[in-house]
Amino acid sequence: MKRSITIALGMLFLAQSIAVLGQQKKTEKVELKYGSHRIGKRDDAIMERWRSYGLGQFIHWGLYAIPGGEWNGKQYNGAAEWIRSWNGIPKSTYDSLIYKFDPIKFDAKQWAIEAKQMGAKYVIFTTKHHDGFCMWPSKYTSYTIKNSPFKKDVVKEVVDAYDAQGIDVYLYFSIIDWNHPGYQAGNAKPNPFTVESWKTYNPFSSKEKKDKYEEFKKFTRNQLVELLTNYPKAKGLWFDGTWDPAWMKQDGFTDSLEKELRALRPGLIIGSRFRADENGSRHFDSNGDLMGDYEQGWERKLPNKIEDVHGNDWDCVMTVPENQWGYNKAWKGHIKTSNELIEMTAKSVSLGGNFVLNFGPTGDGSIRLEEKKLASEIGNWMKTNGDAIYSSTYAGLEKQDWGYFTKKKGTDKINMIIFNTPISGTYRVKLPAGTAIAKSYQLASPSETLKVEEIHANEYFIHLNKTKGATPFVIVLETTKKVRNGDNNYEKAKT
Ligand code: FHN
């Protein structure tokens, strides 16, 4: 028993070491056929726009919204959108939910208006989740919205409505497809998982399964081309379910598919989840180079320091309750408040990333009241303080006890996003050498300047005019180059 625990811990350590190593640039590069397609960040205008978003909306909507985490009065304990994988339901019974999908309250225009009010600059919408149900009338399967009582092309309605509100649309697509006869998860990954063991790993337990998987690959490719062709306004694809070892083993196929999709839509944005290299490395190839346009590994977690993001673009996708993406009638565990979500947004931007908040509409197409309330509270905050989020990024300064710094791109403005105010109402701020504060004010009241006191070289006290209540807020520091006049007498201050 003791030995197996030791072995298990050893394996866990090894797996974690491999994962960590995968994110670090290797000094000795290995020759890769299917590694990263680009070294370094994208520098085009489309990607620059992606970087400016700050806040996005994720929507998980599909057949799973009908049971909402409950089947015949029994609660499923996993994430609601995974309910089909539960032994409590015959799979064919789940699949027949297609005949019940008739969301009479679905109003994409209203969703988009509310998303805009929240301050979202992009939306990621589930065109197909793991159950395989297509929210667009795909011609490659009959398991689509077209064959539901609703019939209408939901993806088109979402794309058009959000685009009309100036919100960029990204199409979520699950590689896992429980409905397709050729799909399979693959045999368990080799253990230990090494370059050598991966080379000889066979994900298929029979030739028949391997052949069927070839059909599935064609089907997947066709659906992706179909999505990009049908919805030219969509800016990118957001892949999921690609941890599946059968998919990970398709290195040559996925490498050329990525090239094909990018050729079909120049400027297309794809995150790091799409494919693995020939050694089974995901997100980062075996040389530690990012496999996509931004790091897509921050799901329900955030980096803590700038070193954690290795200079890459990234986004964080987050649920309101613990691990529920699709609609679940009974949210359990901690439900995040708007202040917590605003703090996550601020933290993301302060570390150079975007924050994406998930919504799970109900089976009738409405957005649940708790989510509407959060969206409206976040939106109210963003109206006043959004300038510290949009087109803002890492300021070169670490997180402080009072909150986070962001920097407005192309300006000398540094924002302090405040979540904790000291009883004194005074914040201590250390800026890089050669930086002076020309002016400071709250975003909520730019005409009322704040008293700035220099206490050491490049170190200041910013005094609030009056201490604030329970809402986070932003202090702007308009900075200039510092001119030394030699009359500083910091010792007297004894600070
Ligand atoms: O299994 C899914 C889950 O249902 C949800 O879609 C999230 C969103 O990022 N992705 C998967 C888990 O990584």
TrEMBL record:
EC number(s) from the headed UniProt entry: 3.2.1.51
Enzyme class: hydrolase
GO molecular-function terms, A-Z: alpha-L-fucosidase activity
Keywords: Glycosidase, Hydrolase, Signal
Superkingdom, natural source: Bacteria
Domain Glycoside hydrolase family 29 N-terminal: 30-387
Gene Ontology, cellular component aspect: lysosome
GO term, biological process aspect, one: glycoside catabolic process
InterPro entries named in the record: FUC_metazoa-typ, GH, Glyco_hydro_29, Glyco_hydro_29_N, Glyco_hydro_b
Described purpose of this protein according to its UniProt entry: Alpha-L-fucosidase is responsible for hydrolyzing the alpha-1,6-linked fucose joined to the reducing-end N-acetylglucosamine of the carbohydrate moieties of glycoproteins.
Similarity remark: Belongs to the glycosyl hydrolase 29 family.
Name of the featured protein: alpha-L-fucosidase
